Each structure stands twice: as structure tokens, then as C-alpha cells.
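Working notes for the structural subgroup meeting. M.R. asked for a predicted model of this chain before we commit to crystallization trials. I am recording the input and output together here so anyone reviewing the notebook later can reproduce the run.

Input as submitted:
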Amino acid sequence: MVLNHFDQFEIIRIIPFHPFGNLDISITNSTIFMATAVGSIYALSKFEKGYIVPTRWQSVLEIVYETIHNMIKENIGTTSDKTRFFPIVLVIFLFLALMNMFGLVPYTFTPTSHIVVTFGLSLSIFIACTIIGFNTYKLDFFAMFMPAGAPLWLAPFLVIIEFISHGAKAISLGVRLAANITAGHLLFAILSGFTWNMITAGGLITIVSIFPLFIVLFITVLEMAVALIQAYVFCLLTTIYINDSVNLH
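Returned structure, recorded in C-alpha cell form:
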């Protein structure tokens, strides 16, 4: 049997739904796993009251909480009007981390491997940051496109460059996440398939397969780390973009 390693990225319609002709809002495997991530976050929000001596699970949640909270304080500010962004950044981290991890389980689906999901999220963040900037500084928000102290004759070039750089945030944030998750999961699938073929081959090859099996176990741990790191980087860049909007330079 020939395995197609790209099958793990295929979107499957579970419940087809076309209410208005070509408009397709079917329930897909991507929909189900995103809903699962949202449900998991809701379950975490209802977590029981913490103990003075934390359990292992409580310790993990506290580490996540403190990490994101420190990220907000370091990149945006410590005042109450700055830390108000903490809940949304925490939810984004949990949402992405869960979806990134789903693909490591056999016969599951990773929504963040599709650019339409990651770009939709990054575009939403970009629009939100722009609205926050205009709401805070009104027309003075355009000052971010002209670095302070720059010669006036360079203004046309700098404004164009800064404007392109600002707009690229909406694309780069989502593309970076989708590319890293897709590449990692594809490598994981290829190595797993190769190892399985060696194990089932029989004879001396089965014995030799112990070596690639350890490699797969190492890659599994590595991919779990990458899933968390990519969610962290996404949130880190999000806080930097928010900082550009609320702390205009």
C-alpha cells in the first residue's frame, strides 16, 4: 500500500451544508478539531479552585499563566489598561497550542496546517491592532509610518516602506505558523511511515528498525516542543504588534 503523507492535511466534509447554492459552510474535520480546542479551553477556564500546594496539572496551568502574563508585561506594559490584553493572548496561545498538538495523534487533523486558518487569525489580529491604534491616537496613529528624527526629504520613501512593513504583519504572522506546522508534521509522518515499514518487513530489518524507532520517538518529543514554541512565538509577535498600537513611538 502506498501512503500519501499529504492525506493528513485533507479537509473532509463531515456534514455537508450548502444553504445558498455555492456557499459551502459544511462541518468538516477542521471545524470539529477547532471546536474541540475551544471546548478544551472552556473546560480549563472552569478548572477547580487551586490548592496551596499545587497539583502537577495546576502547576502546568500556573506556568502557562505566568509565562503569558510576563510576556504582556515585558512587551506592552504593566498598567491595568495594558494588561487587559492578557485574556485574549492567553486564549490565543491555548487555542494554537492545542491545535498544533492534535496532528501528533494518529488519524487526527491539524487546523493550523492550513493557511486559511492561520491567515484568518493573523488578519483578525492585524485589523484589531489597527483599530486599537486609531481608537487610542486617532489620526496621530499615522505617525508610526514616519520614524522620529528622520529627514523630511526621506518621508515619501520611509512612509511607503513602513506601510508595506506594517501590512506584511498580517501575512507573515499566519504564513510562518502554517509553514512550520506543515513541515514538521510532514516530516513526522514520513519518518513514522518509514519506521513502520521496517518493523513489518520481518527478519533482520525488524531488528534494525529499533534505531529509526528511537529517532521517531525523539522527533515526537521535538514536535511537541515545536507545537508549543510556535504558539508562543505567535503570541509574542502579537504582543509586539499590540505594543506598536498602544505605545506609539
